[in-house]
Backbone:
């Protein structure tokens, strides 16, 4: 009997730490642990030895403990796409669920009491009210957080459920915030899988789930395939291929030093730069999803009396803005909603920007500038009658500098609209197109009175945002959360790669992040890259002794 | 009770087959008691007597003396190459009475091809074998002609040591070591049969001349000898290597036991007389001035004079000659179709496959201090001998060369290693281990790496101890074996750094801190080595602490750091953060008197790497840990994959063939998709639960009251309980 107890003990003991490798010969216990472990866990006389690097154990053991377990997962667990519901739930589960939730969730109570700088320590099964914030500290949604600490939860891990407003945009934003805070997106049925693997569900339930999951992953495979057709998928594919090609170059030199010509570093670095650029494109593509949900914000700016309000009215086919002959009629930002080839857009008619002493108009000008800064697309309107004036040049310079000082990662593309096209003096036609081509992505001529040029303007808006007109079959290539997560991972890897190159780390370190990038990209198609790299090496290089 | 436990354990739970009557073929049977006794008796003195002598002393007289020549050992190793030597030494050093059978006693640890040890990834293998207490590193350190560190600037994980070795000295030194172990017996013999017991367990081997040798563990390291056939041009003859006879019969025997065999090919270039080569126009390649070492044992660090290698290139005449005579080569003439290694292509392969390349590098490497032979690296060919000299003479410097040995190719039988588990024991026959080229690898280092593992496991198995498995991410050895047993490879396998997913963690400098504790536990690291190891680790640890605490401000040192790294040095910066700056090496600390003189060069390297790349290493480690948690889930060995309808048909087939031991292995098998793995996990877990429920119910029924049993995992604890 005692024997059986001894054998069972390791199950109940935490793994011995290696903090003092020299004082008490811990490897002995370690080893014995493995022996016992194996005797207790399997019927065959086999033992598994995962050897570890003693040198790093001391510093890492604490780190490791935190990572042990299979990571923290997050997903929207209420149904999506069925029209807005009152409440939707984002669930987090895993060892760092509380930490992740703590990063995105600010309880109202604590903000008042403690200034919000203490780690969140929730009491299990007590609902807390608060906000979810994004990376920049902006409030995304008002939520109820329901912490359910292990083992009293569905998965028997720490679980935090965030009850958000039931609209898809809110839910996705909250989920994205969680993913950015370190959670990974749950596989279909993964909560249940965990519940099952952690012994929360019984056998018959588990068998149902097994069926469910296999069905789901087949469907998921189909939909993933369907989902990544078109531009996005080929972008990812070509990025991945480029990663593998680079890896091939590097790996070949690491394994077969003697036999290959030296690497041309400048061209390599160029290639990496191009890839980074492409990746940014891919992420922009990913943002399409976001645009679809939040809609485009289009700010119409310009000097007073160039016909901004008329343009808004003509575009929205309404009399939303008051139009007079008097310069400075519009004092506040006027909104109108339109749909551009199926994409929701909000037009913002702004006060004409000019030097003014009128207090109300001054405020209006400020608001115009603010609207321009927050917009996804800026439309700069000028009058064909006046042509490109000094004031226009000043105005646009002002906007550009304030855009820069706001330090926005991506400045909104600008379109020049030459309004009042019907009364243009012909001779001015070419000259200002030349002047403005650097600043503006597109130049469109419109006549607000007749509505001419509006459809060209719509096309231009879509084009500058990289939104191809959607086919009648519906949108085929939006990026889902999983793909978005992998793209983020890729981007992070590229940022690190860039640092490695800048810090002139040895070549081997470049491969680590290239591999990571290729793996992240490959997750979408699910390939094993190490074989591929090898095959590629052998097909490309002449190697051997 | 507690102190008696381990003994009792091995006594009671030794798998039955060990205490089974040893069913000697064509000899009388001995009783269960006798063999039980013999098992029991041999441990105290570490030796096992031969059966005949035992029988004469013993009480059981059924065994008559002289009736049959048979000898009894704990472990038999077949083959005396690099795998065989490591296996035999490991086994003997662990106290097992070991017999090494080899075809030719004068060719122990022979280097039939390139007289070199190490190189990218291979050097890591050598360091690892040494860290476990193996021999290859010491040998290479003792017999080197030249040493170079490759990839010096490409990162600590891919840095690789390569040594040219004196091939005769190497073989002689290894023979001395093998001969000097009192547990190790050497005999010339050709093994033609393995002897199998009733439970599909190995019992011994039979030789061509009719001798039977018995042991509960047998390691086969047949190299290129099993049905070996060498080719020069169209001419061929059965041989394991030029001038040595092949081993015949064993393949058929293994096939009859149900093993799948296949054929591989490899080759070796011609040797030329160095006195006939004009080196004046050739680019010399010298060894490193500061010599590095394979072995972690400073006792082997004895510097010797180095020899020079030379570099020449193929010319347009070389290419023309080959193109004109392609149909004379076995591959392109079409009379050999065994697969050769992609990484050691013959010169005709290189020229055909890489048409655009005008010239290929050829290295001339000395084979020893006392022999005139030069190894022509990169120039192996299947051309007939009459063309070979002409071909050699197209190379600059070799215009008047004299050829001593022609290049030849060798074809041999191997057993695709999916038939082995990761302990290198075959799945079919209990106690039978395969190592080296028989598993489809190429290279001395790969052979040695498998050899030491199979030697350790053979010894442990003969003692009834659980076998050792090195996980993939623990070492290159683990990666090598994992690849072999999961990937169903059909071409010679060479170790490459890119085969390891986390090579930054598997460096040469930390091979000892990864594996020496394990070597110690296994029993291959003696007290002296262990003390050396521990004090080394302590010094490294203390030095890292020191660097963390010592701060410097301004001065010449800071100025030079700033110039070297291109980064400013703030006041009161720790030495640690200085060492983290780009291009700052420990040497610079030494130069300005901030180093630690008590540290050896290699210890300084360790400190530098640990500090400089701490961020990367941590990231890789946490990445690995995440993977490991999932991958180390074990799969039962008797799974019926065909009955799992949630798996794809292809993966059912593949899984049934390879029979992976862990989920991680399963996921690495070609054709098994992530969805299959999920399905597999579910299936296994639900079955485990079913079994658990059943046993719980049975326990309840039988009135067992032990709560611990019910709470613990599955059936085996129950078996143990009833046994107690």
Residues:
């Amino acid at each position: 009997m005692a024997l059986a107890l001894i054998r069972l003990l390791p199950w109940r003991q935490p793994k011995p730490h290696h903090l003092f490798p020299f004082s008490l010969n811990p490897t002995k216990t370690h080893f014995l642990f493995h022996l016992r472990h194996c005797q207790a866990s399997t019927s065959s006389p086999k033992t598994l030895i995962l050897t570890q690097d003693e040198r790093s154990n001391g510093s890492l053991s604490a780190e490791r403990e935190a990572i042990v377990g299979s990571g923290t997962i997050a997903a929207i667990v209420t149904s999506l796409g069925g029209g807005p519901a009152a409440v939707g739930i984002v669930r987090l589960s895993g060892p760092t669920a509380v930490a992740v939730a703590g990063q995105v969730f600010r309880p109202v109570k604590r903000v008042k009491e403690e200034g919000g700088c203490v780690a969140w320590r929730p009491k299990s099964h007590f609902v807390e009210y608060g906000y979810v914030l994004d990376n920049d500290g902006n409030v995304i949604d008002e939520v109820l957080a329901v912490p359910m600490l292990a083992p009293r939860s569905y998965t028997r891990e720490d679980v935090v459920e965030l009850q958000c407003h039931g609209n898809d945009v809110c839910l996705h934003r909250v989920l994205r915030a969680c993913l950015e805070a370190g959670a990974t997106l749950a596989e279909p049925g993964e909560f249940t899988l965990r519940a099952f693997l952690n012994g929360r569900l019984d056998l018959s339930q588990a068998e149902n789930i097994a069926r469910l999951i296999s069905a789901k992953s087949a469907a998921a495979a189909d939909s993933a395939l369907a989902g990544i057709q078109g531009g996005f998928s080929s972008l990812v594919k070509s990025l991945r291929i480029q990663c593998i090609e680079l890896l091939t170059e590097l790996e070949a030199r690491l394994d077969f030093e003697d036999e290959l010509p030296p690497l041309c570093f400048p061209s390599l670095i160029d290639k990496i730069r191009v890839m980074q650029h492409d990746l940014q494109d891919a992420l922009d593509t990913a943002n399409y999803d976001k645009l679809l949900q939040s809609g485009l914000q289009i700010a119409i700016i310009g000097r007073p009396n160039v016909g901004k309000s008329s343009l808004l009215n003509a575009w929205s086919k309404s009399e939303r803005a008051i139009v007079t002959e008097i310069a400075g009629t519009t004092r506040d930002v006027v909104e109108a909603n339109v749909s551009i080839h199926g994409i929701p857009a909000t037009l913002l008619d702004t006060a004409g920007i000019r030097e003014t002493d009128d207090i109300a108009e001054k405020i209006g000008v400020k608001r115009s500038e603010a609207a321009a800064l927050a917009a996804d697309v800026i439309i700069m309107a000028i009058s064909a009658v006046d042509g490109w004036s000094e004031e226009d040049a000043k105005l646009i310079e002002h906007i550009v500098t304030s855009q820069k000082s706001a330090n926005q990662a991506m400045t909104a593309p600008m379109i020049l609209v030459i309004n009042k096209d019907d009364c243009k003096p012909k001779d001015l036609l070419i000259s200002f197109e030349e002047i403005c081509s650097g600043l503006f992505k597109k130049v469109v001529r419109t006549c607000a009175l007749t509505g001419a040029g509006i459809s060209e303007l719509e096309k231009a808006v879509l084009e500058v945002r990289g939104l191809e007109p959607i086919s009648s079959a519906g949108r085929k290539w939006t990026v889902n959360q999983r793909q978005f997560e992998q793209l983020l991972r890729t981007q992070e890897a590229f940022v690190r790669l860039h640092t490695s190159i800048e810090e002139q780390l040895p070549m081997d370190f470049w491969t680590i992040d290239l591999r990571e990038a290729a793996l992240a990209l490959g997750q979408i198609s699910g390939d094993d890259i190490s074989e591929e790299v090898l095959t590629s090496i052998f097909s490309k290089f002449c190697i051997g002794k | 009770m507690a102190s008696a436990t381990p003994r009792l354990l091995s006594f009671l739970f030794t798998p039955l087959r060990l205490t089974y009557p040893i069913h000697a073929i064509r000899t009388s049977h001995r009783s269960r008691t006798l063999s039980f006794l013999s098992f029991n008796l041999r441990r105290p003195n570490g030796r096992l007597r031969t059966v005949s002598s035992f029988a004469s002393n013993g009480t059981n007289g059924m065994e008559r003396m002289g009736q049959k020549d048979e000898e009894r050992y704990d472990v038999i190793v077949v083959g005396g190459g690099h795998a065989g030597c490591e296996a035999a030494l490991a086994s003997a050093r662990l106290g097992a009475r070991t017999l090494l059978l080899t075809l030719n006693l004068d060719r122990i640890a022979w280097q039939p091809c390139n007289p070199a040890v190490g190189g990218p990834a291979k050097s890591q293998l050598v360091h690892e074998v040494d860290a476990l207490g193996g021999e290859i590193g010491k040998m290479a350190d003792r017999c080197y002609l030249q040493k170079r560190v490759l990839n010096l600037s490409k990162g600590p994980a891919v840095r690789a040591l390569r040594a040219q070795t004196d091939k005769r000295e190497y073989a002689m030194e290894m023979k001395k070591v093998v001969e000097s172990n009192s547990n190790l017996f050497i005999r010339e013999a050709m093994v033609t049969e393995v002897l199998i017991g009733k439970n599909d367990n190995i019992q011994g081997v039979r030789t061509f001349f009719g001798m039977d040798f018995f042991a509960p563990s047998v390691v086969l390291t047949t190299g290129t000898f099993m049905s070996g056939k060498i080719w020069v041009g169209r001419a061929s003859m059965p041989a394991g290597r030029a001038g040595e006879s092949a081993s015949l019969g064993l393949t058929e025997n293994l096939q009859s036991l149900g093993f799948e065999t296949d054929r591989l090919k490899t080759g070796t270039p011609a040797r030329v007389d160095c006195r006939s080569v004009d080196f004046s126009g050739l680019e010399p390649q010298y060894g490193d001035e500061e010599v590095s070492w394979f072995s972690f044992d400073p006792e082997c660090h004895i510097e010797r004079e180095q020899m020079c290698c030379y570099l020449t290139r193929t010319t347009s005449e070389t290419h023309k000659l080959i193109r004109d005579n392609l149909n004379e080569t076995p591959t392109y003439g079409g009379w050999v179709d065994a697969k050769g290694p992609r990484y050691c292509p013959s010169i005709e392969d290189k020229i055909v496959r890489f048409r655009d390349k005008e010239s290929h590098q050829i290295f001339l490497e000395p084979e020893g201090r006392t022999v005139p032979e030069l190894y022509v690296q990169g120039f192996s060919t299947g051309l007939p001998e009459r063309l070979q000299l002409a071909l050699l003479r197209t190379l600059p410097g070799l215009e008047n060369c004299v050829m001593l040995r022609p290049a030849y190719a060798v074809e041999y039988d191997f057993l695709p290693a999916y038939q082995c588990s990761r302990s290198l024991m075959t799945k079919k026959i209990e106690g039978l281990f395969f190592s080296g080229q028989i598993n489809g690898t190429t290279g001395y280092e790969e052979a040695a790496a498998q050899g030491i593992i199979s030697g350790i496991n053979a010894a442990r198995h003969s003692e009834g101890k659980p076998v050792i498995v090195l996980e993939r991410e623990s070492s290159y050895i683990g990666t090598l074996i994992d690849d072999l047993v999961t990937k169903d490879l059909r071409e010679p396998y060479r170790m490459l750094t890119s085969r390891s997913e986390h090579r930054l963690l598997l460096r040469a400098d930390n091979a000892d801190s990864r594996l020496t504790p394990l070597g110690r536990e296994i029993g291959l690291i003696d007290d002296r080595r262990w003390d050396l190891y521990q004090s080394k680790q302590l010094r490294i640890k203390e030095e890292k602490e020191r660097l963390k605490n010592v701060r410097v401000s301004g001065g010449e040192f800071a100025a030079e750091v700033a110039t070297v790294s291109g980064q400013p040095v703030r006041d009161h910066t720790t030495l640690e953060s200085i060492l983290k700056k780009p291009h700052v090496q420990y040497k610079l600390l030494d130069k300005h008197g901030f180093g630690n003189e008590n540290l050896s060069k290699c210890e300084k390297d360790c400190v530098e790497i640990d500090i400089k790349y701490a961020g990367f290493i941590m990231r890789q480690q946490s990445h690995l840990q995440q993977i490991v948690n999932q991958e180390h889930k074990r799969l039962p060995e008797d799974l019926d994959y065909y009955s799992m309808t949630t798996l794809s048909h292809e993966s059912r087939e593949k899984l049934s063939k390879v029979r992976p031991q862990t989920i991680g292995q399963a996921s690495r098998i070609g054709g098994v998709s992530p969805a299959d793995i999920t399905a597999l996990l579910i299936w296994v877990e639900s079955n485990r639960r079913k079994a658990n429920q059943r046993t719980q119910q049975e326990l309840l029924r039988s009135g067992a009251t032990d709560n611990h049993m019910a709470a613990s995992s599955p059936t085996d604890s129950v078996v143990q309980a009833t046994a107690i």
User: Anything to note?
Assistant: Chain A has a mean pLDDT of 69. Chain A touches chain B through 89 residues (CB under 8 Å). The CA atoms of residues 131 and 142 of chain A lie 5 Å apart.
